[in-house]
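Table 4 source record.
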Amino acid sequence: MSGASAGTPPATASASAPDSASVAGGGTFEALRGQLHEAAAAFADGPGALEGILLGMVDDVDRAVREPLEIFPVCHHSPASAIAMARRLREKQPKVVYLELCEDMAPLLTELRNCRLPVAVQAFASEVRGFPAEWAPLSVVAPLTEASAEYQAIAYALDTPGVELVLVDRSSDHVFQWDRRAGDPGAPAAPQGAPAPAEEEAALHGEAVGVEIGDLRPRFAELEEHLLRHGRVRHWSEWWHQYVELPLGDTDHDTYRQVMLLVGSLFRRLAPGDPHRVRVDEDRERYMWTRMREHLSATGTDPADCLYVCGAFHAASRVAEFGVDGTGGFEISPRTATTWQHGLIPSSHAAIEAQFGLAAGSVSIAATTWAKNLRRTRVEPYRLAGQAGAPKTRTKARKTAAAAAAAAAVPRAGAPAEDRLTGFLRQPPVLDALDEAELLGWSVDIVRAARRNGYLASTADAIAVFETSILLAGMRDRARPTPYDFQDAAVTCIEKDSVPGRRDVRRLVEIMMGGDRIGQVGYDALPPLARDVHDRLAPLGLALEKRGVQRALLDLASRPELAACSDVLWMLRRLMPHGAARPIMGERRLGGTSVQESWDLALGTHQRALIELGYEGVSIEQVLEQRLRRAAWDAQARAATVLAAVEDATLYLRSRRFADDLGTRALEVLSGERSVDGAPEVLRRVRGLLAYYRTCEPVLPPWIESFVKTGYAHYCTQLPTAFADEDATAGQVAAMLGFLFSMEGLALSLGCDRAQLELAVAQCRPRDPSKTALLWAAQVQLGTLSRQELRERCDGLLANPMVVPAYPRYLSGFVHALEPVPGLADVVVEAVSNAFARLPDPVLLPWLPSLITTLRSGAADLAPLLIREAGRIFPGRLEALDAWVPPWRQPPAAAAPAVARAPRGAALLRTHRSTGDAVARLLGWEGSWEPAAAAPPGAALLTRHPATADALETLLTGA
């Protein structure tokens, strides 16, 4: 212990701490001080640091006990604290209850009666002011279970007339003002040593900061390790259950209070010297005592009629502001301009364990212990009237017995507190007798559960679990096996070395001991948005508040009124996490509607996400519009992002005005972009929007015309740079060319100049083989490179041994070229076929895997076009393949000899000369008809030089 004192933080020796002499005058704990002084002298070879720690702990207890305003120390989710709290409330009947909970959460507590516990009180801020923007969103939660002392205090205060409940802890805003973020190297780390739950219910709190009453866990790592080793337990939750929960379950009020104060003082004095954490703890204590003194001064309440419920760690405080007669002048800093939203979200045992670093199953075991303590002590707990999920009330006889026991235990008014620590610390541990019936029932139940989950368990395994539990308890110096002993025995005897199902034996024991109870927020306690969603989905006839997946069938043809439900579901799919609303049949796309839809809904499972949507607005339409607007006007927004917002506004909101505003924003963003990273997404979305507006609108919106015109000039300017940039991929360059070629007609009609594109292509100097192939395709599209020349270049690549290893990259570029120039599909098929036909196996086989991986990774979406063209060219039957000759190897058809003949219209002119004379007079021509000839003068040239006519025919027909 003397070594432990060396790690005591400087704050523990502050000037505000009382010394032994000043507190010892009362004589309440004088005998205990003498015994500790003798123990320190014997174990530490004389008084010193150890004596200071031991006697200081007694001073802390004495100071808290003598305080006129009664301090009730608790531990979060402790059944012993909850039993002691219920008993003390019935004895004292305080008029004011001061509770260590964020003061801004007070208005929500009345809504707890509309919920099924466990739930968490939440403060949420989506937009921050006064904090760094990267912290958003901010969230603070305070979980509540029935087996927690704070819930007993809340239920008593809300349902007892004339009782006032005052929350005195720092506000949610101060939580983030005082605490450092997780990314800070100096921020306090989460408790270690507890396994992370694998169930999805462990994420019910999200990334919220947890606020709890009574964080009773050693902050001195060596102390915790020492306690676990000598207590023969695996983790802190088991130690607390064995050595604190069970001994305090049957004690009287004074013993419970003094022991909890002693434990809080021990952990406080042996805490490591983290200046930030010590400062936050002391500031919280100053804050709470300042608020209590302000309330006492404003209301004139007698401190003897009040009860201060706080964590045992804070009950042993030594700040100057401690007590109703505190001398400190603590100034509470103002809150920031952040707007906080408050609500209730569902919680679960697994979520509480995950957030506060407790062992898996510890909260479920605490709930079971709470139920046993109620039956054994016959204490009547407090429950809010109308509380959903609460068990039935006790009978009248049991209530009478509990009231009589409480009346008999009421201490005499004004009587000084007696020393209960000496007797408690000196008494030997009470060994509970083995309850064979209970242990046997556990053993049978776990074998039954194991068989249902795929384990080959039998009656012999039940006997083995029973005996092993007793053996493990004996090895750990306890006569009665605890649930943790039973859990270890079940894992050893049943699980062995394999887990056949989804759950292991440890999880099965947790479920059997009480399960992972999951709370639910009632309809009346939901925010307006969540209630509106439930009301609008009521025609579906589903119990949306239930957990699990439910199937919804919407026949929009026979029941058109369900179209409104469909709109809500599609918006929920857009706003909520995956799985909350999942479409099975049906789609929502531009210009298309579904006749029937099928949905898997799990709104009850994702109730937290739905509630947090309510913090952002009063309707899902408003929330969706805010999110789209925020994404579009973000400083890092890209043109593709804004176009996606335009599409969502058109699909879900059907707002032409809002879509036009977003489109104008997309035009601004595109003009300022200096990279081509988003070109593929821009091309895809612009094509879809153009197709939609052309089919569903009489005219194109002005913004999309401007977008096409600006995009044409923008990508023409960026094209030479993109071809030379090593960071720009072939797919991005192909998307740029696709935009230019597919939007060319509309762009030219709006006033763009095609010469700009021709000059841009002429300036391109690619080095990458795939981009070189893209450039050749662009030249073919512009007419500066013929298809025959392109074929010759491909043949030259295959003929060059130095280029053959890079040939797959050329092919990848050709495949990407199908995006801007789909007419080159036959040339690409020819290039691939020539490679397989001409290259020898020693050359072809090494780069064949590279060809496949290149095409799959770089042009997977264009492969269907290539396959379809190959299916058109190649024969459909295998036996025809041997005699098949590729079209590009077939000799050109011989030209038929030209036969000179007179034009067919010449005879009509001479037969009906009046028409020609009239045209001549109209044109002012005076002349006479020439004598008829066998053929026109130019016909002889066609016969002498037929190559000119053939070339003209080829140019016009493209053959």
